[in-house]
């Protein structure tokens, strides 16, 4: 082809595209309820504008409890707080702030009876690496006592900052939220996943992480949650490579627990299994032995939180009772973002509420907090913008929480609302990743500080209510560590 022919061809293509730009509907052409064809205008092509930047300097300042330098529990609640308007505060169904009082009462009781209570934090991939949960854990444990990273999946999809894991290569993972890892039954346990090994021997190794917070490193109790093994299995614990104690995991058709008490903090622990067929291994818990708070990080990559009604309720309820679970936190929404209409968000909210109610029915005495989705950005007509129906999803999650009697925390609003994610990404250091969806570890610490502030504000309000009502408060003062 001669150069003049190439030039004429390119000019013809440009003319055709220009004609399309002139005649194409400005708002796009809707092909189906979920698909819309959009063609940029001349203005959008030659003068692309980014959305107005959101000022998040007040939210991300170092004064918001970074580096664990301040005890937020000691901060007085703001007299101007309106929990129905300010997204930084917890919100409650019909304004009923007593929703979390059972959990607050459990926090107060810790120093009296020296027992351990657990907070299970479920969520999607935003929680991977123990992001968000690790900060909340450290703060709660510094204030109310407790040690260790809590429940550990025997086969996680991503390494945690709080514990390093390795294992023999004959393990198989099963997860209810994964289409490729389904089991032949619904007994997935407290983490909604479990693992089995092939053959007659296997091991799990857990090592101290240099990235962990101080309290997560200091565990002195190792608990194995397992069950439904067809034959007896020997489980031997190795402390820093040296054999310590072994237990016989008898054949069973229900949840079982094996516990090893440690006389010092290990650098690494190994559990070696031998003999018989593999049990279903649900979790390993690494905790302290003197009571306090355990916070369990349960990330579910790709999940939307619509799996709880599908779990075996007997096993899940027994797991909560055995572990002493006193609060459930559920953080979802990002994997169910509507693409075609706001009605999609409403339908998801109704489905999500069904699973929240299943948990409520299972153990009505355990309060729940729903954490909404973060801001998420994508290119729309060449501009980086929040997903168009993200507010609809936020509202659907809040309605689902309220309908199920749960508290709600608006992470989207707390981080700055629409178009705030690009600012988090461009911060120095970056507070969110280049996918404009997930927080970095530094950003996770920031958003965790905002959530923890909201939780402790309401805890302190609860304690002041006890004092005003002349209720005897004999538990320790949470404003002091």
Give the helices and strands, then pairings.
Layout: H1 3-23, E1 29-30, E2 36-37, H2 42-46, H3 57-60, H4 101-113, E3 116-123, H5 133-144, E4 150-152, E5 163-167, E6 171-175, E7 193-197, E8 201-208, H6 214-217, E9 221-227, E10 233-239, E11 242-249, E12 255-261, E13 268-274, E14 280-287, E15 292-299, H7 313-323, E16 325-331, H8 342-362, E17 368-371, E18 377-380, E19 383-386, H9 390-403, E20 407-409, H10 411-414, H11 421-426, H12 441-468
Parallel strand pairs: 3-15, 3-16, 16-17, 17-20
Antiparallel strand pairs: 1-2, 4-14, 5-8, 6-7, 8-13, 9-12, 9-14, 10-11, 10-13, 18-19
Summarize the structure.
It contains twelve helices and 20 strands. It has 481 residues and is an alpha+beta fold. It is globular.
Number of domains: 2
Straight-line N-to-C gap = 80 Å
Instruction: Report the CATH C-level class of the largest domain.
Output: Alpha Beta
Cα-atom radius of gyration: 25 Å
Which fold does the CATH topology of the largest domain refer to? Rossmann fold
Low-confidence stretches: 62-84, 473-481
Mean pLDDT equals 87
Strand content: 15-25%
Biggest beta-sheet profile: 5 strands, parallel
- By CATH, the architecture of the largest domain is named 3-Layer(aba) Sandwich
The total beta strand count reads: 20
CATH superfamily grouping of the largest domain: SGNH hydrolase
Give the strand order, joined by hyphens, for the main sheet: 15-3-16-17-20
What class do helices, strands and sheet pairing give?
alpha+beta
Helix content: 25-40%
Number of helices: 12
């Amino acid at each position: 082809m001669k150069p003049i022919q190439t030039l004429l061809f390119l000019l013809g293509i440009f003319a055709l595209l220009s004609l399309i730009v002139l005649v194409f509907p400005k708002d796009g052409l809707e092909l189906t309820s979920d698909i819309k064809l959009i063609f940029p205008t001349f203005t959008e092509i030659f003068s692309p504008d980014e959305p107005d930047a959101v000022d998040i300097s007040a939210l991300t300042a170092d004064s918001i409890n970074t580096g664990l330098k301040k005890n937020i529990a000691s901060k007085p609640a703001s007299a101007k707080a309106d929990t129905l308007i300010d997204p930084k505060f917890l919100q409650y169904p019909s304004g009923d702030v007593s929703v979390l009082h059972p959990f607050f009462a459990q926090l107060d009781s810790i120093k009296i009876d020296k027992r351990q209570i657990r907070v299970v934090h479920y969520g999607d991939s935003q929680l991977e690496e123990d992001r968000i949960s690790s900060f909340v854990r450290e703060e709660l444990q510094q204030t109310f006592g407790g040690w260790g990273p809590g429940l550990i999946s025997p086969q996680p999809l991503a390494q945690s900052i709080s514990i390093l894991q390795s294992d023999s290569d004959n393990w198989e993972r099963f997860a209810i939220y994964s289409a490729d890892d389904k089991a032949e039954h619904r007994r997935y346990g407290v983490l909604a996943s479990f693992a089995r090994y092939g053959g007659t021997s296997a091991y799990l190794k857990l090592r101290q992480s240099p990235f962990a917070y101080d309290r997560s490193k200091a565990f002195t109790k190792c608990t194995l949650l397992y069950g439904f093994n067809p034959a007896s299995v020997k489980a031997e614990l190795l402390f820093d490579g040296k054999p310590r104690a072994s237990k016989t995991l008898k054949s069973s058709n229900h949840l079982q627990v094996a516990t090893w008490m440690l006389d010092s903090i290990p650098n690494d622990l190994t559990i070696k299994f031998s003999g018989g067929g593999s049990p279903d291994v649900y979790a390993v818990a690494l905790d302290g032995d003197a009571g306090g708070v355990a916070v369990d990080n349960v990330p579910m990559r790709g999940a939307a939180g619509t799996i709880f009604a599908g779990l075996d309720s007997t096993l899940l309820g027994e797991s909560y009772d055995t572990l002493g679970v006193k609060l459930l936190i559920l953080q979802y929404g990002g994997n169910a973002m509507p693409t075609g209409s706001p009605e999609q968000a409403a339908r998801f909210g109704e489905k999500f509420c069904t699973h929240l109610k299943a948990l409520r029915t299972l153990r009505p005495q355990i309060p729940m907090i729903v954490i909404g989705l973060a801001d998420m950005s994508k290119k729309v007509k060449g501009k980086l913008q929040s997903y168009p129906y993200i507010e609809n999803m936020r509202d659907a999650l809040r309605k689902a929480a309220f309908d199920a009697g749960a508290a709600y925390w608006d992470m989207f609003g707390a981080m700055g609302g629409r178009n705030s994610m690009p600012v988090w990404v461009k911060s120095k250091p970056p507070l969110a990743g280049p996918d404009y969806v997930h927080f970095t570890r530094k950003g996770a610490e920031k958003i965790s500080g905002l959530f923890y502030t909201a939780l402790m504000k309401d805890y302190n309000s609860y304690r002041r209510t006890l004092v005003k009502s002349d209720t005897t408060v004999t538990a320790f003062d949470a404003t002091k560590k």
